[in-house]
Amino acid sequence: MLEARDLACWRGDRAIFAGLSFTLEPGGALLLLGANGAGKSSLLRLLAGLIPPAEGLLLWQGQDALADRVAHAARLRYLSHQDALKPSLTAAENLSFYARLWGGEVAAALASVGLSELAELPARMLSSGQKRRLALARLALAPVPLWLLDEPTVGLDAASVERLGALLAAHRAAGGAVLAATHLPLPLPGARELVL
């Protein structure tokens, strides 16, 4: 599905990483591990097509993944550190924006992260963990093959991590792949690790 060949990323005149190669198959999971500043977030942004590789190739099904950035964006969901929520919109309205772009059922997505009862509450009224769950609910909208997650469990309690585990398991069971940067254990049984 996804293959990285000798990827390199530079910040200014400093190499963040170089010679990075890996593959990710359908149903697979890869955990990005490493200290702060090791390049985990930069790698995820590169894989999402938000920054270009300084060197190397990113392949999707054997073809240059970044040759058509619109097509590449359509096959993935990227969840960064920031939750990307509009504070004045309700939880349901925040998801409705993405549902119009991608499709999917807002009520089902809210239910998947345990936020059904807070659907009409403005996002500014949600706790930090609830905001993170609302951001994660975007994953439950329309299916795509690849999820790129940057510290997905930040601010989540144990029950919310368990709900995330169910989302991840369903995605993988349907042939989707997950690549996640984390400092904490994630509910991704059988995931391979890549230390930066």
Per-chain topology:
Blueprint: E1 2-11, E2 14-24, E3 29-33, H1 40-47, E4 55-60, E5 63-64, H2 69-74, E6 76-79, H3 91-102, H4 106-112, H5 128-137, E7 146-150, H6 158-173, E8 177-181, E9 192-195
Parallel strand pairs: 3-8, 3-9, 6-7, 7-8
Antiparallel strand pairs: 1-2, 1-4, 4-5
Helix pairs in contact: 3-4
Question: How would you summarize what this structure contains?
Answer:
It is built from six helices and nine strands. It is 30% helix and 27% strand.
CATH domain topology: Rossmann fold
Q: What Rg do the Cα atoms give?
A: 17 Å
User: What is the CATH superfamily label?
Assistant: P-loop containing nucleotide triphosphate hydrolases
Strand content: 25-35%
Taking pLDDT < 50 over at least 5 consecutive residues as the criterion, the unreliable ranges are: none
Oligomer: single chain
* Secondary structural class: alpha/beta
Give the strand line-up of the largest sheet. 6-7-8-3-9
Distance between the termini: 22 Å
Instruction: Tell me about the largest β-sheet.
Output: 5 strands, parallel
Percent helix range:
25-40%
Q: Could you give the count of β-strands?
A: 9
Mean pLDDT: 93
By CATH, the architecture is named 3-Layer(aba) Sandwich
What is the top-level CATH class?
Alpha Beta
Helix run count: 6
Give the domain tally. Answer: 1
Order of helices and strands: EEEHEEHEHHHEHEE
The 3D shape can be described as globular
